[in-house]
Structure formats: structure tokens, C-alpha cells
Task: inverse folding
């Protein structure tokens, strides 16, 4: 029996780890799956745990008002020391690029426990963009034993950094597994404002912003561009789940508050959010994960950043990197609103990030690596 400890702390991690946890639990004769959460984010994490019916075995509950990266790192490391000393797992699974990810990998290293890194190998080449995620990825890779790269590009990044080929498995991204299991064409929104939008006759722009590097003037430029778009196109509505960060909310209210056809709403839980994404016309975001998810639903994505760790999407034509200036955001959005052929080209491009079977490949890779199966997984192409 192989004991696998999964560790995560934020909503995006929980979404992407949930289908993997469910897959690991399908092998009770060979795998014992234990779950630890740092709750680096609390409320949004709990929503996902409830949706996927995951009950953590350990909940560190480290979130505090106004917490800094130093606070998260200290509390997570202290808590995970106790968890790993108690569980003594054979493998620690982490995901992506959060502070929880790096700290859990470091704690496992201190206990000399092998680390598996889900969504390994993403790179921008700029250690401050995104911050601190880019360095969290690098630091986690150094102590990782099994690298579960979502794409061939991510694998190649790891190979260039000297990772042995036999330690890398190209799996696709588990976020597509979660997405396809959650989208429902008959879904009904509980929020009256969302339920009242005519998604067939109105072109809905779904907007999210939260990146630290975009705080201040970049966000103001983005919101001014949105204001210009709404003024120009009477059939456009903006739905904007506003991040809880006061630095985001202040600028949003200043530029977009009380504007007709702009719906400023509280952050949505995962289920209504992906079903909203399924009905929108276009996504504008500085998120990393949405660059993978939205194309799986045929939605073009304009990335409100200057760099991206997901170049496969740019090459595939599912996303465009537009930056944060008012002029660029306005012009690129107009192109997709005015040019139906350009819109179709992006909407119909093949999503390079997954086919809904990433969790199965990762589970097979773990069993194969530890000698519990003779069959390695077929790589995601």
C-alpha cells in the first residue's frame, strides 16, 4: 500500500487536485490517499472542497487578515512539519506555483520524502512575473522527483533545466478534467443578476483581474478600456467577479462602479463560474488557469499581462497576450467584437491543454514509478 499525501491551499489548486484525488481513491488496494490543506485561502477553498465532496484529513487553517508571503510561508512550514511527521507518506503531491506548493515540497525534502509536482514545467523566464509564482515553480522543481508536465512545452522546459527524461510524464492538465465534470448546459444561476442576462442576444465579456504586478496603474488602464468598450457597443455586458483584495476593489469601483451593463459581483464559487464562462462571449483575464479552461469551452481569451507561462495557447491561437495598456486592451477587444472570422478562428482552435484524462495518466505514472504497475501511461499529445 502506497501512501500519497496531497497538499494544497488555494482554490485553483483545489480545483486542479480534486479530480486527481478522486482518481487516486479509485485504487484502494494499492493507494492510500491522504489530503492536507493549508487553507492559504479559506472561503474560496472551502467552496471547492464542498463541490467535489473532499474532506481534508488535515486542515492547517493558516489564513489571517492582511497576511504576507512571509506569514504564509512560516505558518505553512510549521504546520506541514507536524503533518508529515505524523503521516510519514511515501509520496507528497503538490500542484502548480503557490507558496503552499513550494513550502510543501520543501517540507517533504526535509523529511526526505519523494515529491510529485502536478502542472510542472511552466515558465515565463522572468522571475518577477508572475510574482511569486515563477520562482515557486523553479524552487519546487529542484526537489521534485516526479514531474507531471501538462504539455510537451513544459516537458522541454524541464529538460533544458537538466531534469532526467525518465522523471517527466506529459499528462495534460487536470483542470480540464475538473472543468468537463462541472459544466452543465442546463445549469441555473442562483444569482438573480446572472440569471437575468440574455446570453443569446447579449455579448457577455467575463473579466477577472488579481495579479500583484497589475495592481495600480495597469489595472486602471484595463478598466478604462472596458469602460470605452461598453460605451461603444450597446449589446455588450461585462460580468466582473471582483477579487477581494482592497487594492483591486478600490480601482474597480472608481472606474466601473455604477456603469450601465457592468455587473460587479462577488467572487463566484467554481460551479457557477465555469457555467458562466460556458455562456460568455469572450474572456479577459490576468489569470493563468483561465488560459487553459476557457479554450476548452470554445471561448477566446485576451490575457491582460505582458508575459505568460502558457505559450502553447498563443501558438495554438486560443489566447492572445495583449498587455495592460488602455489602447491595447480596447483595440484587441474591438477586433474580436467586430471581426466574426477572427473570433471563430480563436474559438475553434484546438485547446492544447488536455482531454479530460490527465488525472488517470498521473495515477498510472505513480503506480508505474513505484512498481505497482507494469504499464506506463500513454503521454498526452
Result:
Amino acid at each position: 500500500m502506497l501512501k500519497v499525501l496531497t497538499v494544497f491551499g488555494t482554490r485553483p489548486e483545489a480545483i486542479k487536485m480534486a479530480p486527481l484525488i478522486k482518481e487516486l481513491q479509485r485504487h484502494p488496494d494499492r493507494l492510500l490517499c491522504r489530503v492536507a490543506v493549508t487553507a492559504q485561502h479559506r472561503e474560496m477553498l472551502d467552496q471547492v472542497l464542498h463541490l467535489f465532496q473532499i474532506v481534508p484529513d488535515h486542515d492547517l487553517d493558516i489564513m489571517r487578515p492582511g497576511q504576507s508571503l512571509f506569514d504564509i510561508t512560516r505558518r505553512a512550514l510549521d504546520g506541514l512539519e507536524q503533518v508529515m511527521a505524523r503521516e510519514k507518506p511515501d509520496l507528497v503531491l503538490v500542484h502548480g506555483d503557490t507558496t503552499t506548493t513550494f513550502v510543501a515540497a520543501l517540507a517533504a525534502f526535509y523529511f526526505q520524502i519523494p515529491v510529485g509536482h502536478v502542472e510542472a514545467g511552466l515558465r515565463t523566464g522572468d522571475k518577477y512575473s508572475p510574482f511569486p509564482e515563477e520562482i515557486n515553480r523553479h524552487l519546487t522543481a529542484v526537489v521534485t522527483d516526479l514531474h507531471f508536465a501538462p504539455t510537451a512545452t513544459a516537458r522541454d522546459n524541464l529538460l533544458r533545466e537538466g531534469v532526467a527524461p525518465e522523471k517527466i510524464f506529459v499528462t495534460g492538465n487536470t483542470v480540464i478534467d475538473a472543468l468537463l465534470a462541472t459544466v452543465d448546459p442546463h445549469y441555473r444561476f442562483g444569482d438573480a443578476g446572472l440569471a437575468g442576462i440574455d446570453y443569446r442576444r447579449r455579448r457577455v465579456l467575463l473579466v477577472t483581474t488579481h495579479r500583484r504586478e497589475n495592481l495600480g496603474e495597469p489595472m486602471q488602464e484595463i478598466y478604462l478600456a472596458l469602460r470605452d468598450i461598453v460605451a461603444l457597443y450597446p449589446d455588450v455586458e461585462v460580468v466582473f467577479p471582483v477579487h477581494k483584495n482592497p487594492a483591486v476593489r478600490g480601482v474597480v469601483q472608481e472606474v466601473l462602479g455604477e456603469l450601465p451593463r457592468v455587473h460587479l459581483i462577488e467572487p463566484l464559487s467554481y460551479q457557477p463560474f465555469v457555467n458562466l464562462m460556458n455562456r460568455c462571449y469572450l474572456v479577459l483575464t490576468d489569470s493563468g488557469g483561465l488560459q487553459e479552461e476557457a479554450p476548452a469551452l470554445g471561448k477566446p481569451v485576451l490575457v491582460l499581462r505582458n508575459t505568460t507561462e502558457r505559450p502553447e495557447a498563443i501558438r495554438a491561437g486560443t489566447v492572445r497576450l495583449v498587455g495592460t495598456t488602455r489602447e491595447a486592451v480596447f483595440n484587441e477587444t474591438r477586433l474580436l467584437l467586430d471581426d466574426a472570422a477572427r473570433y471563430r478562428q480563436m474559438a475553434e482552435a484546438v485547446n492544447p491543454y488536455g482531454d479530460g484524462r490527465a488525472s488517470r495518466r498521473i495515477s498510472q505514472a505513480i503506480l508505474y514509478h513505484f512498481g505497482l504497475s507494469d504499464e506506463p501511461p500513454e503521454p498526452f499529445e
